[in-house]
Structures are given as structure tokens and as C-alpha cells.
């Protein structure tokens, strides 16, 4: 069949009746004749251009009919204009061609055309190769079942925060570690796993390296889920804290907070070893790297850090460096950060403060680590408060308890030093604590910080109670706190603290020289605390826009729209909202008593009623933005206790990557549990494991 006659043949005889070889021959011989097609376009005469065949690889022509057709639609059937009748007019030809190129029928025909001839490849595979592929896939299925069991063990141990490895993992060991012991327990009920553990010489899946790889792969799939979540949200806030783990390595945690539809989530991103560089620029570099990695630069609305000056410093802290790149990112106080903890952390640069905090901690450490010593306090009728990163008022409670039971505590440590039956370490430590209770500086700071904590505890509790619902009241409380701390900055207060210290311990003396020394330190401490408050709450007035969604004010807003707060919102987040539409949506909500709900309930109502896309899209964005701002929800610091628990189980040689990966499994155990319910979860982890490096076990189907 001649090439130029193919279209005429197909139009008259059809394509389906041809042999396989004839069909392939036609596929390779698309006719592209020059056609004598013209049309009048104003004063111009347009003619058919042969280069249109290159522009549209599916375009063909018929000399006999002097028309153009769609080659694939002629073969498989499609729009009559392109598959049967043909086009003889080239007026608006290019527009018609581009429209046809994206039509559903044409795309379907293009796929059939592309696959024509390829589907027959299976018919030429030798029977031997086919059987080999079948056998390979059977083995892959078995291997994937085995790896699935190992993944289940990894998820279980990770969620339960249990150690993976034992000290001795040979066959004679009575405790080979939780990972091996749990696999062997499962093998008692599963013959396939039992045979594998007993007989496999190439890949057993029990080595330290394989365990690490599986942990990383599960974490990778978990992080992919979080990444996909983040890409769908409008706003993200960053929370970061720095602490020292049990192996004396400084760790920084990073958490992203955002709203998925109507649900607030805080996702743990990881622990980052900052032992070698704890400068503001070093910490900021890590945070900026994570911002880029997770692609949230255009979503960040606020940041919050702990009280260390390197984190929150006004002109050189991390928050300042982040705002150099993301200027609309507010720096706010996260209400999960207890105010005492934040302010003390910031004041730790003062040696006396750091020493006082350490001494407070030492009293708890001494009595809590021995049942005999704990019982000694119980006999005195009290106990020291538990130290915990999640007990925000630990320092204030510890100072209050030591002050209240000063004499009893003094008698208790004296008993340890003087009575027989106590070990040398207890006696030595008790002697040091006794000296502290007779130390003029320690007792003075006990009184001074007791007064400071009285004010800061009140403000913290108020902020927790009011959250962001009443910004003006919160600002007023913060101003009162600064005033109260300023009122302590005088000679009278210093003398009063000295006198109260003497009432606690009449063996103490505070001469004029000592009082002047304490006066200088006191003023330095109070100045540091006030500076910390100014920095931490500098952006607080900018949050006044949050009251736009304060449901308690909706009735008054219906009468008088909150214009000033509305303008602050638009100024803080320009080009974020459709101002006119948002104003009207809010007016409708203010007018309806049924919608006078807190932001999270209002958002829940809007989304569950399917009103978020067409009716209240701007109010939806506003509620999501407000809820993304860290308020009363526990955040970064609760993760630090997880860090210390997990680190206890790890060997000192374990890498920080494994620490962060294991922490992700433990901290995000709820998310991991939800993901594990999806049948594709394990397959995704296995695929990640197979792609990570060349394995000595086949895991990919042919």
C-alpha cells in the first residue's frame, strides 16, 4: 500500500480488519502530503503550511480529498470532523487543532496509538524467561512478608519507646534485645519467619545496620505524610527549643504547627545536634535549612523559641535573623513555655542565677534518687516537687517548698551527715546541701525569687486562661508584671529580702558590704528579666487582630465592626485576604447568633457544613491563621522529656540521626498508628528500604 493512499484506504476499508503486521506498518507511515488549501482572511490569503505536520505530530492529509485529518482518530474513531469528514477550510485552523489536541477522545486514541505494537512483547518472551519471572515474583512476595514483620516490630518498639538492641545478641544470650526477642516471639507462631531466622545466611534482617535502615525508612514515610499535609495548608508556625540530653549533647527540637482543615496539629520535625555551634547564626542556619527543606517559606506566620538570649535576643537572636528573611513572621511567647522557665533561661547568663537554679535542682535530685532519703523527708511531713520538663512551675514550687520547710529540710540533710548508716556519697552531698542552706546568697535568692515567681506565676496562669481571647487584658497583665518587677528594684526590697533570709536562718549575717553586693546582683537580675519580657512580648500588641474572631465580642461587632483590629490584620499579613469579602463574611457571622462560636468550633462548623469553599473562604483562612498561632497547646518542651527517655535506651555510639528518627516514631505515635492502618503503608516502607541501597534480598517485582 502506497503511503499517500493510506488515509483513503482507512476511510473506506477501516483499520480493525488488518493484520498485526499491517497495523504496525500503517503506524509507521503517517501521510504528510502538501495540500492546496487556501482561505481569504481580510486582505490576505492564507494557505496550508507543511510545517503544521511537525507542530501537530498526529496531523495527516489526503491528496485525493484535499483535506486534513487526525491520524489517530481516523484509525480508532473520534470526532467526525477529524476522523471522517476532514477539514477543507484552514480558517482558524490552529485554534481548532489545539482544541482537538487536548480533547478526551483524542488523548485516548493517542494512548492506543502509542501502545500499538508494544503490548505484543509478552508474546515473544521465552517460556523460560516467563517462568523465571514468576519464580522471582514468588520469592519477592515471601521476602516482602518477612520485611513486613520486621517493620511491624520497628513500629511497635518505636511507639513504645523501647530499646532495640541488647548488650549481647548471640544465641547463648538470655536477652538479645527487644528487636530480636520480639522477632523470635513472632516466629513461634509463623513458620515462614521461623525458618528464615534459623536458616538464612545471606540476609537475616537482624543486624544493627538493617535496624537503622528500617527505622529511617519508616521515619521517611512518616515525614512524607507530614510533608504532604504541610503542602495543603496555608499557614505554619515554627517552635524551637534547645536543651541538653542525658549524654550531655545539646539538642534543638523543631516543631511545625498548622491547621489541617479544622484540626490543629503540631508535628515533630526532628532533633538537631547543636553541641558544636550554639550561636544564633548556627541555630538560625538549621531552622532556615528546615524551612527550605519543607518548603514553608511562604507559609510562616510566627515563630517562638525558649528564653535563651541566643534564641530570642532582640538584635542578634535567632528570631531576629529569621525575620531578616521573613519580615512578616511574628515572634511571640508560646504559652507552652512557662514564664518562669523562659525568664530564668534568659537570665542564666548571670552566674548567680545559674548557680541558684542548679542548687534548687540538686535538692530534688538528692532526695528523689534514693528511697531511704525520700523516706527521710516523708518523716518530716513533706516532699520536694518532681522535676520535669513538662512541669512548668517546678522552680517556683521548689523555691516555695524549700522556704516553707526550711528548718525541716535543714534537719534532714544534717541527719544524713551526722547519723550512722549513710553511704559516703550521701554524706558528702548532704554536707554540700547543708552548706547551701547556710549560704547567705542562696537563702537571699530563695526569698527574692519567691517574690518574682509570685508575679510570673500569676501572669502565666492568666495567659493560659485567656489565651489569645483578650489581648488587651493580656497586655495589661504584662505591663503590671514589668511594673511589679521594677518596684522590686530598690534598696528597700533588698533589705527586706535580707531580713526575711535572717528570719529563715538566724545564723546568717548581711553586713553593709554584702547588702551592696546583693543590691547590684538583684538589680542586674531584675533588669535582665524585664528585658526578656520586653523582647518576648514585643509583638504582642500586633496580635490584637485575633480578637476579630473572639466569639464573646460578636454581638458588639455586629453593632460596630472592629475596624481598627481589621486594619491591623491586613497590615500584618498583606496580600493574604480579599479584604472586602472578608469584611462581608464576618458581618454575616456577627449577625447570626448560631455562629457565635470559638475559632476552632466556628471552623469546624464551616468545614463540616461544606461552607468553606464558596460561602466563607476568607473566614476559613482567618480561623486557620489564628489557630496556627501557638497558644495553650503543649508544644516543644513536652518533646524534650521524650528525648531524654529515648536517649536513655540508646547506646552512646548511636548516631543523632537514629535519635531523631526514633523520636519521630515515639512522638508521632498517633500519626504512625493511623498510617499503619493503611494497607499501602508497609509496602511504601519496603519500597523505600529497597531503593535506599542494593540489598542482598530481592524486594522488587518484575
UniProtKB/TrEMBL annotation:
TM region positions: none
Location of the HAT C-terminal dimerisation domain: 590-671
UniProt GO molecular function: protein dimerization activity
Residues covered by the DUF4371 domain: 109-316
SUPFAM superfamilies assigned: Ribonuclease H-like
Pfam families according to UniProt: Dimer_Tnp_hAT, DUF4371
Name used for this protein in its record: Zinc finger MYM-type protein 1
Species name: Sipha flava
Domain of life of the native organism: Eukaryota
Alphabetical list of PANTHER family matching this protein: PTHR45749, ZINC FINGER MYM-TYPE PROTEIN 1-LIKE-RELATED
InterPro entries: DUF4371, HATC_C_dom, RNaseH-like_sf
Amino acid at each position: 500500500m502506497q503511503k499517500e493512499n493510506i488515509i483513503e484506504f482507512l476511510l473506506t476499508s477501516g483499520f480493525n480488519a488488518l493484520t498485526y503486521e499491517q497495523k504496525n506498518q500503517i503506524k509507521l507511515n503517517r501521510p504528510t502530503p502538501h495540500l492546496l488549501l487556501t482561505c481569504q482572511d481580510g486582505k490576505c490569503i492564507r494557505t496550508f503550511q507543511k510545517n503544521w505536520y511537525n507542530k501537530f505530530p498526529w496531523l495527516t492529509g489526503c491528496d485525493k480529498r484535499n483535506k486534513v485529518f487526525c491520524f489517530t482518530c481516523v484509525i480508532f474513531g473520534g470526532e467526525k470532523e477529524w476522523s471522517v469528514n476532514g477539514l477543507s477550510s484552514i480558517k482558524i485552523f490552529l485554534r481548532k487543532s489545539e482544541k482537538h489536541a487536548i480533547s478526551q477522545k483524542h488523548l485516548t486514541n493517542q494512548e492506543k496509538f502509542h501502545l500499538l505494537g508494544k503490548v505484543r512483547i509478552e508474546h515473544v518472551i521465552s517460556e523460560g524467561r516467563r517462568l523465571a519471572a514468576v519464580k522471582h515474583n514468588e520469592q519477592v512476595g515471601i521476602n516482602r512478608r518477612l520485611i513486613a514483620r520486621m517493620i511491624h516490630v520497628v513500629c511497635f518498639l518505636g511507639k513504645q519507646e523501647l530499646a532495640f538492641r541488647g548488650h549481647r545478641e548471640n544465641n547463648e544470650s538470655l536477652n538479645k534485645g527487644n528487636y530480636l526477642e520480639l522477632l523470635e516471639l513472632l516466629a513461634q507462631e509463623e513458620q515462614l519467619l521461623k525458618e528464615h531466622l534459623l536458616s538464612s545466611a545471606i540476609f537475616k534482617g537482624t543486624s544493627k545496620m538493617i535496624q537503622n535502615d528500617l527505622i529511617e525508612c519508616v521515619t521517611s514515610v512518616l515525614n512524607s505524610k507530614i510533608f504532604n499535609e504541610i503542602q495543603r495548608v496555608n499557614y505554619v508556625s515554627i517552635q524551637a527549643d534547645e536543651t541538653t540530653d542525658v549524654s550531655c549533647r545539646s539538642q534543638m527540637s523543631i516543631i511545625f504547627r498548622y491547621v489541617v482543615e479544622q484540626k490543629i496539629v503540631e508535628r515533630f520535625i526532628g532533633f538537631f545536634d547543636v553541641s558544636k555551634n550554639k550561636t544564633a547564626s548556627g541555630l538560625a542556619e538549621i531552622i532556615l535549612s528546615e524551612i527550605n527543606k519543607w518548603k514553608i517559606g511562604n507559609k510562616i506566620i510566627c515563630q517562638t523559641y525558649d528564653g535563651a538570649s541566643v534564641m530570642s535576643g532582640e538584635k542578634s537572636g535567632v528570631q531576629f535573623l529569621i525575620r531578616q528573611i521573613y519580615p512578616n513572621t511574628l515572634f511571640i511567647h508560646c504559652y507552652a513555655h512557662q514564664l518562669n522557665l523562659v525568664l530564668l533561661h534568659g537570665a542564666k547568663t548571670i552566674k548567680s542565677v545559674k548557680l541558684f537554679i542548679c542548687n534548687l535542682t540538686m535538692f530534688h535530685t538528692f532526695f528523689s534518687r534514693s528511697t531511704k532519703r525520700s523516706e527521710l523527708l516523708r518523716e518530716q511531713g513533706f516532699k520536694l516537687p518532681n522535676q520535669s520538663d513538662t512541669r512548668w512551675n517546678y522552680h517556683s514550687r521548689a523555691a516555695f517548698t524549700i522556704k516553707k520547710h526550711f528548718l525541716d529540710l535543714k534537719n534532714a540533710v544534717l541527719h544524713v551527715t551526722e547519723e550512722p548508716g549513710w553511704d559516703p556519697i550521701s554524706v558528702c552531698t548532704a554536707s554540700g546541701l547543708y552548706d547551701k542552706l547556710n549560704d547567705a546568697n542562696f537563702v537571699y535568692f530563695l526569698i527574692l525569687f519567691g517574690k518574682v515567681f509570685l508575679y510570673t506565676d500569676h501572669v502565666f496562669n492568666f495567659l493560659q486562661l485567656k489565651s489569645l481571647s483578650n489581648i488587651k487584658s493580656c497586655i495589661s497583665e504584662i505591663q503590671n508584671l514589668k511594673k511589679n518587677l521594677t518596684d522590686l528594684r530598690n534598696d528597700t526590697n533588698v533589705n527586706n529580702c535580707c531580713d526575711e533570709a535572717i528570719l529563715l536562718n538566724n545564723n546568717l549575717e548581711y553586713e553593709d558590704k554584702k547588702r551592696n553586693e546583693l543590691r547590684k546582683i538583684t538589680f542586674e537580675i531584675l533588669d535582665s528579666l524585664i528585658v526578656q519580657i520586653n523582647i518576648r512580648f514585643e509583638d504582642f500588641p500586633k496580635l490584637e487582630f485575633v480578637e476579630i474572631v473572639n466569639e464573646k465580642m460578636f454581638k458588639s461587632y455586629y453593632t460596630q465592626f472592629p475596624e481598627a483590629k481589621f486594619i491591623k490584620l491586613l497590615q500584618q499579613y498583606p496580600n493574604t485576604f480579599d479584604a472586602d469579602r472578608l469584611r462581608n463574611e464576618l458581618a454575616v457571622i456577627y449577625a447570626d447568633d448560631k455562629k457565635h462560636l470559638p475559632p476552632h468550633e466556628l471552623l469546624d462548623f464551616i468545614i463540616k457544613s461544606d461552607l468553606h469553599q464558596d460561602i466563607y473562604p476568607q473566614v476559613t483562612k482567618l480561623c486557620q491563621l489564628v489557630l496556627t498561632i501557638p497558644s495553650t497547646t503543649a508544644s516543644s518542651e513536652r518533646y524534650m522529656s521524650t528525648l531524654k527517655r529515648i536517649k536513655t535506651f540508646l547506646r552512646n555510639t548511636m548516631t543523632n540521626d537514629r535519635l531523631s528518627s526514633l523520636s519521630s516514631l515515639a512522638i508521632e505515635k498517633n500519626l504512625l498508628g493511623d498510617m499503619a492502618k493503611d494497607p499501602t503503608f508497609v509496602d511504601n516502607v519496603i519500597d523505600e528500604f529497597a531503593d535506599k541501597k542494593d540489598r542482598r534480598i530481592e524486594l522488587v517485582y518484575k
